[in-house]
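Thread: quick sanity check before group meeting

JM: Hey all, I'm pulling together slides for Thursday and realized we never actually wrote out the predicted structure for the chain we discussed last week. Dropping the sequence here so it's in one place. If anyone has concerns about the input, flag it before I start.
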Amino acid sequence: MLTDILTPLIRKNQPHSCTGLNSALLADWYNQILRLKNDIGQWANKHNKHILVGYPLVTVLVCLVDKQNYNSLVDSMADFLAKQMKNKEYRSLCFKCLNQLVISSLVRNAAATTSPSVVAWLDKIVKPGLSAARKGGISTQEQQDFIADVADLNPEYCVGSIVSDLLQMDSMDSQLIALRTLHLVATSVPRDSAAALEADGLAPRRSITLTASSASTYSSSSKQMVQLPTGVILDLIRTGHHPFDLQGIAHLLPRVQQQIGQLLLQYHRSLGVYLSFTSDAVPKDRQAHLGLFSAVICLVPFLKPEHWTAVRPLDFLPS
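JM (edit): ok, ran it. Output follows.
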């Protein structure tokens, strides 16, 4: 219960971001958070049966400590969780806790998401965590949710580093996660931009957050990005306002278009000869690629492949 109560404070960066608070009360708050973190950590480590509730609570408490203790505790907690992920029994639990640490760090460093120190920290924490997740014990949906949170708070790192790496892997699951993440990013805009579009009557009054988990009003959403309906996004693109521009990652568009183009050519060579995509029409050994090919096609309206500048798009689809 305490974990659920305190977790929303992480994305809101409270009470760290609050102003006008009584300094003595604030100091007492941070002292209590640190005390609880130490006590519950020792309790969970002594009694394995309490790990399932102990680790998430300790993680949340670490995310809420004062600025002086924050960096050292987050780093030590991340290292601890990475080691615990070697145990398949707790891998999913620790992966979710690691996700919470990443959210906290990105929220606290929101003004410096592209700084070398932040990028280096993400490389140290996120990539090994995702690598461990691919070893098993963690569903593709859990990995997708983890990456979506990074995309929400730092789209440049997500697209330029995580997604780019996943698209180059041989694993179909990794490629599918990357393509789904790209679809979320390519159909999302910053919350402030969504609110402005809503005020101008160009966007519906309600939409879905980047994780596509629930509906929320733009101004009250805890997410930084808001996913808009396809029609609204296409209208923005037609008027020269690509979501990548609004998110400040337009410089990544050529690279993404190149990778999408390569995947489209790859799957066209193996699937483009079939007149339909039914199970009877496509051999079993190629049916596994249909989901990936479909995901690539879904991206085409938003991320035109680089080699489509002088050809007819329908030439790359079944006749």
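AS: nice. The radius of gyration is 22 Å. The beta strands are 188-190, 207-209, 215-216, 225-227.
JM: adding both to the slides.
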